[in-house]
Amino acid sequence: MSSSEAFADIKSPVSIEFNRKVILRIQDITSLVYGCGAGILQLESLQGFGLFAISYISVAFVFFAWFCHFQPGKYFQSPVQEVLIDSLFRELAGFVMAWTFVYALLG
Amino acid sequence: MSIISKVLLIVALAQLFHSGFSSYEFHQLKKQLAAGSSVAIDQISLPKDIRLEVLSGLILFTFSVFMSFGKLTYLPLSGKPVLLSQHEYLKEIDMNRATMTNNLIGSDPYGEITYTPNFVDVHAKRKELKQWLNDRESHDKVN
Amino acid sequence: MHLPSLLSFFELSKENAVAELTLDPKLKYWVLLPISIVMILVGVTRQHIMALIGLKVKSVPRKKITEAQYMGKAQSLLGNGSNLSDESFKTRQEYLAQILAEGKYVAEQTKSDEPVNPLNDPNASDAMMNMAKGNLANYIPQTLIMWWVNHFFAGFVLMKLPFPLTIRFKEMLQSGVMTADLDVRWVSSISWYFISVLGLNPLYNLILGNNDVDALGMAQQQQQLGGMPGGPAPEVMMKNLANDVTIAQHETCFKGIEERVLKLYKN
């Protein structure tokens, strides 16, 4: 029956929104603080972006492991898209801002 | 849970501030040395202890952030006010799973649609009740 | 503007051959920090101003709402009709088809076929006004800060970027610094403005919390408003809906529901 499949994967918009806010908050705060860390270490060019990549991916990994119990499909419609790609440039910009700021303050 | 998170946050911030200040002093010193002497300044990089301090500060901070989101707890709307938990940090998105939380706490998010007392025929209900009471009285008399 | 200017002592370092400048440390405290603080405060203020000017309860005539809701009813019957049993679906289908076909709840009969000027409709102009206000609240502070930064903090090198940029950025980021050969990594204050404009979103999210409830309420209001200006006339839409409802195929979800529920909650 067609409607049985249609109703089996109804998603709860409240839960989607809640989960999105949690991951966004974690990523915002970590990217800013890792930017500060990069500034303190006085990292330059590729090293800094490398720190961003490492921190971004490891935070996402810890998130998947700890909060999603390795089953991100239960909490996100398309986990990789929502956790890793959607907020990439926003977090990169935040990271670069904090990095530049602390770099200039300390240097 | 949240106390650990706060303690970690304080430690991490203290480490970051301290290492930041150390790094600042180090770079000031380096600049002054560069002005005055002929030592190969560029070879000197940030001391290892400062770097380790930054790293530990960052890692502790990450854990503190993750710990600040405790497991979700709910207060039931009726019954004893006990904190209920499903041992989850996030909410499941499948509707049939998400409604379990509502069932747990006795909440009905669609109540404004399904709760329709204005559709009830009060007069009929009262009549029914009166009938029932009368029946019971007569029943009692018989016994 | 009297501000400490940069000292001129160049030194080519061996590895990356970036000219080393010694900047007055006061630059950090009197330029970098003020710009950052002002940008954050302006963001916070803008948020509050938006909340103030956006908060307005729209009033729509009752007839309009009735019209929109009958159309919504037909649409939800088409979309979610399978939740009903055959009998109740048929009742609704007959009733809605009849009501919509005869146009009982059309709010106002349009006299002619000429399209109404959307500017005359008070609701539409209201929506446009809100949009304009939102845009203004975004652009005015940005322009103001940019002017402020350009006016007060122009003409000197403020900081060194931690990453190299291509030479194309030189003109934009080193505006007002009259050095032809200076590396692009040394930038003036306007570039700090650009970096913070791009990077402040996460910070706003952290310090302002979230106001998604407002967004939801706004979306609901928008929906309530019904037809947007320039769309087809409600009568026509009703006729179309009536046709759709009449020919709608129905398949109830109650068929075999017990097995499906058990299957769903099995694990």
TrEMBL record, chain A:
Q: How does it sit in the membrane?
A: Multi-pass membrane protein
User: Where does it sit, as one GO cellular component term?
Assistant: EMC complex
* Primary residence: endoplasmic reticulum
Write down the Pfam families for this protein, in alphabetical order: EMC6 (PF07019)
What are the entry keywords? Endoplasmic reticulum, Membrane, Transmembrane, Transmembrane helix
GO biological process terms, semicolon-separated: autophagosome assembly; protein folding in endoplasmic reticulum
Q: Where in the cell is it found?
A: Endoplasmic reticulum membrane
InterPro entries listed in its UniProt record:
Emc6 (IPR008504), EMC6-like (IPR029008)
Q: Which residues cross the membrane?
A: 49-67, 88-106
Q: Which family does it belong to?
A: Belongs to the EMC6 family.
Name the record gives this protein: ER membrane protein complex subunit 6
TrEMBL record, chain B:
Q: Provide the coiled-coil residue spans.
A: none
Record bears the keyword Signal: yes
Looking up Pfam families in the UniProt record yields:
MMgT
Keywords of the record? Membrane, Signal, Transmembrane, Transmembrane helix
Identify its membrane topology class. Multi-pass membrane protein
Q: Where in the cell is it found?
A: Endomembrane system
Leader peptide range in chain numbering: 1-22
Q: Name one GO cellular component term.
A: EMC complex
Biological process terms from the Gene Ontology for this record are: protein folding in endoplasmic reticulum
Similarity annotation: Belongs to the membrane magnesium transporter (TC 1.A.67) family.
Q: What is this protein called?
A: LAFE_0D06546g1_1
Which species is the source of this protein?
Lachancea fermentati (Zygosaccharomyces fermentati)
UniProtKB/TrEMBL annotation, chain C:
Please provide one cellular component term from the Gene Ontology annotations of this protein: EMC complex
Could you list this entry's UniProt keywords, alphabetically sorted: Membrane, Transmembrane, Transmembrane helix
Q: Which coarse location class applies to the principal site listed for this UniProt protein?
A: endoplasmic reticulum
Q: How does it sit in the membrane?
A: Multi-pass membrane protein
Which residues, by range, are in coiled-coil regions? none
Pfam annotation, one family: EMC3_TMCO1
Q: Give the SMART domains listed for this entry.
A: DUF106
One of the protein's GO biological processes: protein folding in endoplasmic reticulum
Q: Which domain of life is it from?
A: Eukaryota
Q: Where is it localised?
A: Endoplasmic reticulum membrane; Membrane
**Residue stretches spanning the membrane:** 29-55, 136-159, 190-208
Q: What does this protein do?
A: The EMC seems to be required for efficient folding of proteins in the endoplasmic reticulum (ER).
Sequence similarity = Belongs to the EMC3 family.
Name-wise, this protein is ER membrane protein complex subunit 3
